[in-house]
Amino acid sequence: MKSLLIGGLAALCLAGLSLAAEAADVKFDLVNNSARAVKNFFTSPTETTNWEEDVLGEETIPPGETDTVTISTADGQCIYDMRFIMEDDAELVVNGIDMCTLSSYTLSDAK
Hints:
alpha+beta, Immunoglobulin-like
């Protein structure tokens, strides 16, 4: 009976580890070094065609400011695309960012 209980507990622990590997929050600093405020910020795994919800919600990131953002990754996905909508509705899409190793991302005006 004792070995059955230990085996059951081990299975529960493994299941918990498996669930933890499926979803994780990734935090990084988003630095706005552009001349315009960031109005919206979307991400999605590279292989999908739909953008997830706006990470900023009602907030904006003014020029010269930094905000810490949190992205929920799922199923061990690390490679994401990012879409920025600026205050003048200009759009910038950046493809193939490794969110699992990202600690900071700097957005700047194209030259």
